[in-house]
Amino acid sequence: VGIVTFNGCPGCSVADSTQLVSPLTANSTELYLAIDARQAATNATCISCGLELAGAMLNATERFSLMVMLSDGTQTVGGTDQKAIFVAEQLRDTGIAIAAIGFGEYIDELVLQDIASAPSSVYVHSS
After folding, report:
1. Given this model, what pLDDT does residue 67 score?
2. Is 116 in a helix, a strand, or coil?
3. CA distance linking residue 127 with residue 112, whole number of Å
């Protein structure tokens, strides 16, 4: 499992809008420590930025090809929802499967469906 966050900010680069919380690892202790040490979430979301960083991490190995994305499905900085969908299409073309889990008060299921590999790869939890 590897973990990437995608808290964006207006005018930020992809590098400034993402954080590699944990590289791919099977060590659960390392994952828990990395999650506890991650940067606090902001109210800005750059889904495409997170997809790009996670895709690069997965493409660096031939062993893994599944990405699980947790989001409300709305890209607020770094481009539009269409940019996130475009990046997801590029990743799927390389063989990476994407499961999208929607959560939050306002969830854009249509965007999550367009990002996910198949409609059956979208799971929604409203709070």
Report:
1. 87
2. coil
3. 17
pLDDT tens across 49-78, in order?
889 988 988 887 777 788 888 888 888 888
* Amino acid present at 4: V
Between 11-15, 69-73, 101-105, the lowest mean confidence (pLDDT) is in: 11-15
Burial environment of residue 118 by CB neighbours within 10 A (0 to 12, 13 to 18, 19 or more): exposed
**Burial (0-12, 13-18, 19+ Cβ within 10 Å), 44:** middle
User: Would you say residue 85 has pLDDT above 80?
Assistant: yes
Amino acid at the residue 97: A
pTM recorded for the entire structure: 0.81
Q: Report the C-alpha gap between 38 and 24 in whole angstroms.
A: 16
What is the sign, positive or negative, of the torsion defined by CA atoms of 127, 125, 55, 37? positive
Nearest to residue 122, comparing CAs of 85, 84, 69, 82?
Answer: 69
Q: Which helix H or strand E contains 47, and what residues bound it?
A: helix 47-59
Burial 84-115 (b: 16+ CB within 10 A, else e): bbbbbeebbeeebebbbbbeeeebbeebbbbb
